[in-house]
Structures are given as structure tokens and as C-alpha cells.
UniProtKB/TrEMBL annotation:
Coiled-coil regions listed: 38-83
A Pfam family recorded for this sequence: YtrI_sporulation
InterPro entries, per database record: YtrI, YtrI_C
Domain Sporulation membrane protein YtrI C-terminal: 80-164
Transmembrane segments: 12-33
Protein name: Sporulation membrane protein YtrI C-terminal domain-containing protein
Signal sequence region: none
Transmembrane listed as a keyword: yes
Keywords from the UniProt entry: Coiled coil, Membrane, Transmembrane, Transmembrane helix
Keyword Transmembrane listed: yes
Amino acid sequence: MRIPPYYRRPEWQRFFSGVAVGALVSWILFLYINGAWMEKHAKKIEQQKDEIADLQSDIKIWMEDYEELNEKNQENLTVQEIKVKIINDKKYKQLDTLSIYEIEEEIKGQLNMLLAKDLDSVFKSRDLITRVIENKSIKVNDKRYKLKIKSMVIYTSVSIQVEISLD
């Protein structure tokens, strides 16, 4: 069996030449569209890389400024609040919660001078604060109580834990 000779029939020659030309045109069209698409996305990727680099440098600058401001603010911090807690109030059954509250408020009243002072000066005067609290005896329900500081934390909020004992 023999393959028919297509070169003699012009319809087949036009068909194969059309297929070849169509394949060539479609290949060129594919390369053009794909190249344009790749170029567009390559530009977008480059723009995004540049934008990321700019944003990272901005973040670095902002972080440096933020750290500088934190250091400056750290130097200028002041006492905002005073917290006093009596830790052994359960030991004295004659002291009710109102009496405990009054004792805590009296101690806070003695320490009101610390409010709005910078932390450095408050830290330097911590011995004076201890003496002010421990040398004072408080009268509640016709009994005198002595105070002893168990712990003191000094930051923007001065937190003092006090132990109470009969005088």
C-alpha cells in the first residue's frame, strides 16, 4: 500500500501550507503575548521589590526614632500612682476591711508627695519613704499598730507591701 501523493493535489498543499503558516503565526503570537505578560509582571515584581526596600528602610528609621524617644521618655518618667497593700491583715481578726482600707489610704496620704516626681529622685529617697512609713504608728479601734515594709517596687506605679503588727 502506498501513501497517496499529496503534492499533486492543490487542496492538500493549501491545507498543509495553511497549517504551517497558522502554526508559525500562532507561535509568534504566543511568544508576543507571553513576552508582554512576562515583561508586565517583571516590572510589577521590580516595583514591589523597590517598595519593600523603601518600606523596610522607613521601618528601620522609625524604629531608631522610636528607641530614641523611649530612651528620652525613660529619663523623664514620673510616678503616676501609689499602691499600698497590707499582706497580713487576716492575722488580726479585729480589723475589718474598712479599717484596712483606712490604713492603706493613710499610708497613701503620707506618700502623696511622691506623685509627679521623677523616678530617679523617688528611687534615691526610698530610705526616707521606708522611715516615714515604719516610724509612724497608726491608731485603729483604740489599738496602735506598727507598720513594716516587706517589699517596695518603684516605677510609674509605686507598689508597697506592708506588714502590720500590734505596737
